[in-house]
Amino acid sequence: MDFIIKSNDMPTNYGRYPGARPVDELLKSGFILLDKWPGPTSRDVASTVKKILGAGKTGHCGTLDPSVSGVLPLCLDSATKVMPALQGLDKEYVGVMRLHKDVSKNELLAATKKFIGKIKQMPPVRSAVARHERERYVYSFDIIEIDGRDVLFRMSCQAGTYVRVVCHQIGKLIGGANMTELRRTSVGRFTEENLVRMEDLADAYVAWKENKKEDIRNYILPVEAAVEHLPKIIIKDSSVFSIASGSPLYSVGISKVSKDIAPGELVAILTLKGELVALSKAAMTSEEMTKRRGIAAKTDSVVMDRKIYPKM
User: Please, how many CA atoms are within 13 Å of residue 289, restricted to the half-sphere of its CB?
Assistant: First the structure.
């Protein structure tokens, strides 16, 4: 990510780099990429993690149906405040669609092409949202393999797109089809590569409690990992206390800023050590933040405890 340097500031002795955060702090503001298995609801999975880790609260981002497996981002305790930053991220899935009659590959490809781009669909009856037709965007729908009437596919789409409905819509053009299996392979930049299994997380936590083994660091990420995709404003240590207290960020407190920020855009406010202080809404462009005086961003959700950095 490219930055515009406003001033060359050095960090003070307050706070600590996210990678040096002790395990007990990770447990209070951590981020987990869980490999959800078919069966439980996303809420049940989050509740189980809460019980295993003794967390005050947990939150999941991007609900998966009980029968669907794959990438389920989870936030612990104070990290739940960054969940708005994880809403609306694009998704990718791999699934199996069963055709109701024999269809040629060319006919199938012709049908799937009609559902690439902007589409309209109605949420399923059992969905948690209001049932009215809405537009979503499908970026790709690729056929990986065909085995009789079973079609293995990969689909990337806008958040809120119902893959099951897309399969049904395709089926209407070719004599019927329904989704039989589905796995989410990515949420934004978060992919299957670093997923954590529930049993491994539980074992690592027990080992840490009993022997203080640090293996649990392989399963719980610092909260900053959840906002890596956001534009960033790095602030001076002298400004941290006021932002952590809920005050807006004034341009005088900025050290450097991501390029191409637009007013109204959600941004991550970080310390010089890379610690997440808050999520904010930009009130200026990146260039204006480095040249003008005034409110650069309005604090939306404070993540950092204001006791970490003193008032300077």
Answer: 32
Q: Would the pLDDT of 234 be above 70?
A: yes
* Both tokens assigned to 211: 């022997």
Enumerate domains of the chain plus CATH numbers: 3-16+226-302 (2.30.130.10), 20-87+191-224 (3.30.2350.10), 91-173 (3.30.70.3190)
- In 10 A of CB 48, how many CB atoms? 16
The token duo for 123 is 């949420």
Task: Tell me the C-alpha distance between 168 and 162, whole Å.
Answer: 10
CA distance 229 to 216: 24
CA 252 to CA 6: how far, in whole Å?
9
Site of tokens 């699934």: 95
C-alpha R_g of the chain: 22
For residue range 148-196, list pLDDT tens digits in order.
999 999 999 999 999 999 999 999 999 999 999 999 999 999 999 989 9
Amino acid at the residue 277: V
- Residues catalogued as catalytic: 65
Six-digit token string for 257: 């800023």
Q: Is 2 left (phi over 0), alpha (psi -120 to 50) or beta?
A: beta
Which pLDDT does position 132 carry in this prediction?
Answer: 80
Please provide the DSSP assignment of 8-36 as one string.
-----SSS--GGG--HHHHTTSEEEEEEE
C-alpha span between 82 and 311 (Å, rounded) = 24
**Span 33-76, pLDDT tens digits:** 999 999 999 999 999 999 999 999 999 988 899 999 999 999 99
